[in-house]
Amino acid sequence: MAGLKGQWIMVEQKEPGPGARSSHAIAVVGEKGYVFGGEFTPRVPVDDKMHVFDLKEKTWSVPSVKGDVPPPRVGVTMTALGDVIYIFGGRDVENTELNELYSFDTSANVWTLLSSGEIGPPHRSYHSATVDGNRVYVFGGCGVKGRLADLWAFDTVTGEWIKCPDPRNDCLPRGGPGLSASGGKIWVVYGFSGKELDDVHCFDPLTEKWSLIEDSGEKPSPRSVFCITSIGKYIIVYGGEIDPSDLGHLGAGQFSDELFSLDTETCVWKKMEVASDSDVLPGPRGWCAFSGGKLDDNKGVLVYGGNSPTNDRLGDIFFLNPSL
Questions:
Q1: Which residues make Cβ contacts (< 8 Å) with residue 63, sequence separation at least 6?
Q2: Is the whole-model pTM more than 0.90?
Q3: Source organism's superkingdom (predicted)?
Q4: Domain ranges in the chain?
Q5: Per-residue pLDDT tens digits for 153-182
Q6: Which of 30, 76, 161, 215 could pair with 120 in a Cys bridge, judged by C-beta atoms 3.0 to 4.6 Å apart?
Q7: Which residue in the list 21, 135, 147, 313 is annotated as catalytic?
């Protein structure tokens, strides 16, 4: 059975941008990638600026912003819905877990604090987020008292948080999981729960039921902090940590450079073949910023930075162009 193939394109940066970092986030809106958060030195947030990369001109800028600018943080998530980016959680300069939800209006460059404190999900970092319809979903991560396995939805129309039913007992609390929306369902993929995991769970918002997926095929090895994006019925997974460091977040574990796709209709994994004309490859990495988006009208996955097997932070940009 044929699966997806992938071509890697190294994206030129015509001028210096925010530089090397990991544990940051990126969201693509139109022809621009918006970058926030991250670290160069482990656990030390870099800055509170919104860095913007023009995918057409290949240039960086830092716009003048207004409103409720979030403090610096690492382990944060960003998701885009229309012209608005939603930023949730993370960990601050004191290594404290956060739970504020902010929006960033890319048309006006305005930050707005939407919820904090007792409203919404508990504090967390290194969680995952995705968008489906008018909802922003947040799952798992590292909480104040340990890893989490809860799913929340923020309704962008009503401005309210919704606590989804808890998953099955076989869905362990986890940090660095993958979260993606496909076929009207929310998919939880892998993660770290004291060890790297290789299970897949699915939540149906209509029935409010969870399922443990019986996946098969060329399964990825257990991993966490990887890149994940849905394109049609396929969930694409790239890279990630496959063996943690003895130093935890302060060190570099073993990373993957593999590409996989999961057909959400058949629940069959396929290892993606990389096109022979991909002369420059991103290599093994994890803790990256990633986002679905378009480059030259091709729909794919944008990957920026991350951590390397040498524990050096990366500052390069790659685009994955998938095809059948």
A1: 50, 52, 109
A2: yes
A3: Eukaryota
A4: 5-323
A5: 999 999 999 999 999 999 999 999 999 999
A6: 161
A7: 147
